[in-house]
Each structure stands twice: as C-alpha cells, then as structure tokens.
Amino acid sequence: MTRTLPVLALALALPMALGGCASMPSAPLAPAPTKPVDMARFYSGVWREVARRPESLTDGCVAGATEYTMLDATHVKVRDTCTVGTPAGKLKDIGGTGTILDPGTNAKLHVGYRVFGIFTVGRDYWVLDHDETWFISTDPTFTRLYLYTRPDKDTPELRTQLAARAKALGYDVSKLEYPAQP
Prior knowledge:
Blueprint: H1 4-23, H2 39-42, E1 45-52, E2 61-72, E3 75-84, E4 91-100, E5 108-115, E6 119-130, E7 134-138, E8 145-149, H3 156-168
Antiparallel strand pairs: 1-2, 1-8, 2-3, 3-4, 4-5, 5-6, 6-7, 7-8
C-alpha cells in the first residue's frame, strides 16, 4: 500500500501538470537568422565573449571565449571557456559537439555539452547577425544574448555598435553585462 500511494499521486499529478503547460502562453521566438554563415571562416578559431545577458551559469565568469573547430560539413567541435573572478583567475571550460540545424545557411547550431563526462546537456544557438570580426548570438526563445568579437578586434566602439544592433533586433540591451577581458 505504501508504494502504491506515491505512484498514484504521480499518476494524478502528471496530467494536471502537463495540462497546465498546454495552456501557458508560449515564449516569444527570437528573430530568425537570415544571413548565411561561411562555415570555414566562422566555425574556426577563437571568438571572445564581450557582452551577455546575465545567467546563473556564467556568474563570476570573465574573459569568456568560444573556440570552434570544424569536424565535417554539419558538425563543429565547441569549447567554451572563462576565468573565475578576474582574467587571471581559475580557468573553467566545457565542450561538446555542435550540429548545424540549417545546412546551407549554417546559422543555427545545436551543441551537446558533456557535463562531468557523464551526460549531455543541449543548447541551441542562432547567429542573428555577423561579419568577419563579430557576431550576435541568441537562443530561439529570446532569452539568451551574447555578443562576440575576434580577440584582436574588440574595441569599446564595436561593443557599442553591437549592442545597438542587438537592440534593433528587439533585445533589451539594458541588461547586458560586459565581463572583464584579458
């Protein structure tokens, strides 16, 4: 009898929880990427994260960067790094394999990050706008926002331009944080 009660409670609660989700309004979607990404140029080398919306995963992280290495026509090795507290702080990193979700345009990437070497956590990233020296990345739910530059191209003027472009795309850039850089 004691084992039946938790199972019964779960059986009754699950439909109610799922029914509540069905009636919740959906989150707004980010603007869809429209500009094709040249995989060989874009998904190679290091990009510096110069601004982002705050999230618990990056609390205390500064000097953020993402390194891409092309594996084949639709897969990319991804390594995200940052340091704790100061640019000279302890290095934190996480990596995984990215899969291009829109071959031909190459602006939508799903990354499966390996956590503790045991399980995979997935994240989707959309490249909303870019050129050879910078890009604006988000997730499809309009929640996350990241501004990146090539390490040798980062300037205060470029950061201001990127924030203005993100604002023009509909993002609230007043919440952006600009972590310390090396």
